[in-house]
Amino acid sequence: MEYAFYQYLGNISIIFWHFTLQWQRLGIHQYKPLLQGASLASPADIDISALEQKLATARIGRSLRFFPEIDSTNEEIRRNLSLPEGAVVIADHQTHGRGRQGRSWHSESGSGLYLSTLLKPDLPPEDLASLTLMAGIATISAIPQQTSAKLKWPNDILLNGKKIAGILCECIAEPGAHPAVIVGIGINLNHTRFPENIQDIATSLKLETGKDVDRTQLALSLLQNLDSEYEEFLQGKMDNLVRKWTEHSDMFGKTVTVSQKGKKQTGTAIGLNPQGKLILQTPDGKQHLLDSGELH
To answer: What is the pTM for the complete model shown?
Structure first.
């Protein structure tokens, strides 16, 4: 008997594995990565050799795998939880890229940056929800500063009102072990078009600036940012996390609607509390603390 039991904690999907999933029986293909240090031919591609040579991090990216094509970088890490903390999987193309709440993530080849990293923090589950905010800070800091990109709670980055990046954190708790958190990040870089069903809500750096983005350089910046932000997170510097997240968002002071577990609440987004939860003040003057939801 094989199954997985799903729960949600904050912005992170918690997956308790009770039995070992047999991937081949589930129809999931096995993908072979390029060897570490292998580089692609086109200058527009991600140069893994250059990335490894320039990367100066304590944890993130010390183990690095690149796939020309894969189902999902998050899924690849989930199939390899014995990888060391900070292991990174990068793909040029995802056939089944995922976002929050089971949504698909458009992941065409040669255009975006799609990666996941494995974290194994020795922290209680209630402290892990803020990893989504941590990853948001690292991601938006990697995007060229001349853009007007903004963080949207809890896990999106918008540019001129359209989504340019998203974050999916999944926590896997196995009996007798510390939780493992898979942080997946997708950034739209050199896309020139999107499928009709998302073209009104998605954009790319190239569409907004007219300039091509060096994917290798952006990957380098993102991984180094993740490394430094994660170190601060482990040191418990939540004040810094909340401050930086707030500086990169323009949602506070505005009226928003949050959908959570089938219910909607409308009010003013006041800010984040010291634990990174959204403070929503409803018209009756009450303040509500939210650690997950869909913001409209």
So the answer is: 0.84
